[in-house]
């Protein structure tokens, strides 16, 4: 899982860089953005190449952003965590698929404040197919998850102009369909809590003002991942308080 995660993370770096720029994620081959030199396999070994070449291009010495090794390492962590939850199953494939897309969404939203429609469409379509294979949720649960999460974000967007972008709403609906009830709504709650706390910290540190935009996609992605890892335990704990 670690090696697979590192390799997928390397590909996600390409998606994160090219998709917002509306260029093909297939061609041209990977190259240095500064000198345009085509990269060789030795230049693209996940994490290791970054360390060996001290975070710089081997040909022109242009600095390479920290995001590249961070994404590769983070994807490996997500893959291992998903395996510990689902084991060898179709559910594992589903969680790896969702986790990969959410990582791409989170980093694109952080950098560009957008969530490409193409990622939301792939998440919804791929999630539906893998749900049929994994059989972890029913059709009713999928529709309920999509309606609750997408509907809640749509309502917030209507009530608070500019408070919720269209990409966030579409992501919520797609994620709701993929994870279903009750994990998707729980992911929304967890993501909102983390986002709210993070916003307060940023304002207290003077890094953000009350009217400054903060991308919600990364928090929704994190909330969904936390729900996948510990959702059932959290729900049992919460229900146990009132029973």
Explain what you see.
With 243 residues, the protein is an all-alpha fold. The protein folds into two domains: 1-83, no CATH class; 88-243, no CATH class. The protein has helices at residues 2-18, 48-52, 67-86, 90-112, 117-134, 139-159, 166-179, 183-204, 217-242. The longest helix has 26 residues, at 217-242. The radius of gyration is 19 Å and the shape is globular.
Summarize the structure.
This protein has 243 residues and is mainly α. The chain has helices at residues 2-18, 48-52, 67-86, 90-112, 117-134, 139-159, 166-179, 183-204, 217-242.
Number of domains: 2
Largest sheet: none
Question: Can you write the helix and strand succession as a string?
Answer: HHHHHHHHH
Secondary structure tally: strands? 0
Strand content: under 5%
Question: Uncertain runs with pLDDT below 50, 5 residues or more?
Answer: none
Shape: globular
- Name the structural class: mainly alpha
State the end-to-end distance.
39 Å
How many helices? The count is 9
Q: What is the average per-residue confidence, as pLDDT, rounded to a whole number?
A: 89
Radius of gyration: 19 Å
How helical, in percent, are the residues? 55-70%
Brief descriptors of the model:
243 residues, mainly alpha, 2 domains, single chain
Topology, pairings included?
Elements: H1 2-18, H2 48-52, H3 67-86, H4 90-112, H5 117-134, H6 139-159, H7 166-179, H8 183-204, H9 217-242
Helix pairs in contact: 1-3, 1-4, 3-4, 4-5, 4-9, 5-7, 6-7, 6-8, 7-8, 7-9, 8-9
